[in-house]
Amino acid sequence: MAAGGPGSLLLLLLLSLLSLRGRGQGFGQTRFICTSVPLDGDMCAATAPGGGGSAEELKSTVLQLRETVLQQKETIMNQKETIRELTAKLGRCESQSVLEGLPGEPKGGGAGRKGGFSKNTMGDLSRAPAAETLSQLGQTLQSLKTRLENLEQFSRMNSSSQTNNLKDILQNKIDDLEKQVLSRVNSLEEGKYNPKNESEERGKIESTLTSLHQRITDLEKGQKDNRPPDRFQLTFPLRTNYMYAKVKKSLPEMYAFSVCMWIKSNASPGMGTPFSYAVPGQANELVLIEWGNNPMEILINDKVAKLPFVINDGKWHHICVTWTTRDGVWEAYQDGTQTGSGENLAPYHPIKPQGVLVLGQEQDTLGGGFDATQAFVGELAHFNVWDRKLSPGEVYSLATCSTRALAGNVIAWAEANIDIYGGATKWTFEACRQLN
Q1: Of these four, 130, 169, 255, 275, which has the most CB atoms within 10 Å of its CB?
Q2: Average of pLDDT values for 245-272?
Q3: Across 265-285, average pLDDT
Q4: Is 421 helix (H, G, I), strand (E, B) or coil?
């Protein structure tokens, strides 16, 4: 029992009563005597016959108890104020701990397992570990170099002094960025890394990269009129929550499907989400994702099947997944060859219509709720969807860029069918040219 608490009052009263009773035992059997007291009189002044001394002691005890109650009341008020102050300080500490803990907050499971924090990860890149960021910047610079090489090939066939001048300017800017990245690597190795300046420096580099992407995109527009509408690819150079493409057309109700695409990535860990299809009430109606160290997975109505793809090597690969609602039978193809199959994947569940089909991001809500940690990093092309199961021969024709290859009868790969956002870029597709 804590000193000064309410229990101490009861203890004092009990000791007082026991003390009085002990004194009364010396006079024989104890008797209780009732004495009338006027309404305006002092109850403590009333004395029983022959008990004057005991009444005085009782009065003194009551006065002491009253004083103790007042002191304890004051103590309780002070303690309440202290508790309020400590609660406020604790709240501020917890808020700071949450903010500091967000960058390393683990995200369990696959695409269907949602985090508890807000998905606005526009600043995720600036909070990423320095080594990971340097790797991402290196990949971005390499992507820009590749695009400049394509522009060089184009300019050889269409010589233009203005194009060459712009190309030289862009090449110089890329060289400057490489020097900045190298300088940051040296700072890390020498232990001179200063996290306070990290956000500012990275902001400058990202701003320059955005400008480079835009200027290269403007140059690449000159190639657009000279290529077929399906000879393009999408590039997602960074793991963000704002780079994505959206297919303008929704999917119909489907009792079977085939989804095929060309894909290229060496992102680690996991290339992210090449595509996701969400409908009202179900964000994971149809999703393809490789997240963290998990293998690539196909999700249908939140049911999962692991796919035996080995494609995270920085090379172009053609992949297809077919499925039918009857017994939930699925098949996976890589580079024209079947690599796996299974059943009982969302059996007898038709793919629902009136949804949103996004390339490059996993949806946690209809058309949004993107998480940078699940974003696709790499290049994607010839994304086609059929409402039937393709035959092995048809898949092989697609993977070998055969002239007999069919376009999707539900979603066909064409520039007019896709809107791009957040800096994702669109340029000429080269994988089939390399095969032919």
Answers
A1: 275
A2: 95
A3: 95
A4: strand
Confidence of residue 396 (pLDDT cuts 50, 70, 90): very high
Q: Give 241's contacts (C-beta < 8 A, 6+ positions apart).
A: 119, 120, 121, 122, 124, 361, 370, 371, 372, 375
What is the Cα–Cα distance from 300 to 126, expressed in whole angstroms? 33
Q: How far is 373 from 269, CA to CA, in rounded Å? A: 10
Three-class SS state of 114:
coil
Query: Residue 408's closest CA among 277, 230, 289, 234?
Result: 230
Q: Which amino acid is at 77?
A: M
Angle of helix 130-157 versus helix 161-189 axis, rounded to 10: 160
Which string of DSSP letters, residue by residue, matches 245-306? EEESSPP--BSEEEEEEEEE---SS--EEEEEEEETTEEEEEEEEE-TTSPPEEEETTEEEE
Query: What are the tens digits of pLDDT across the range 131-174?
Result: 666 666 666 766 766 766 666 566 555 555 555 555 566 666 66
Between CA 410 and CA 408 the distance in angstroms is 5
Chain Cα centroid distance, residue 174: 31
Residue 418 per-residue DSSP state: E
Mean pLDDT of 278-296: 95
- Range of 13-17, 164-168, 399-403 with top mean pLDDT: 399-403
- Token pair for 255: 């009792």
- Termini Cα distance of the chain: 88
How far apart are the C-alpha atoms of 271 and 172, rounded to whole Å?
Answer: 30
Locate tokens 């077929």: which residue?
Answer: 228
Run of H or E residues at 138: helix 130-157
Which tokens hold the place of 123? Answer: 């600043």
Among positive and negative, which fits the CA dihedral 119, 123, 129, 133? Answer: positive
DSSP 197: G
Please state the rounded mean pLDDT for residues 359-382: 95
What's the CA gap between 319 and 288, in Å, rounded?
11
